[in-house]
Amino acid sequence: MKTVLAIRHVAFEDLGGFAAVFERLGYAVAYAEAGMDDLASALRREPDILVVLGGPIGVNDDSDYPFVKHEIALLERRAKSGRPTLGICLGAQLMARALGARVYPAKAKEIGWAPIALSEQGRASCLAALVPGGEPVLHWHGDTFDLPDGAVHLASTELCPNQAFAWGPAWLALQFHAETTGRGLERWFIGHTVEIAATPGVSLARLRADTAKWGTSLEARGAACLERWLRTIAD
Question: Which residue in 57, 173, 189, 233 is deepest, having the highest Cβ count within 10 Å?
Answer without folding.
Answer: 173
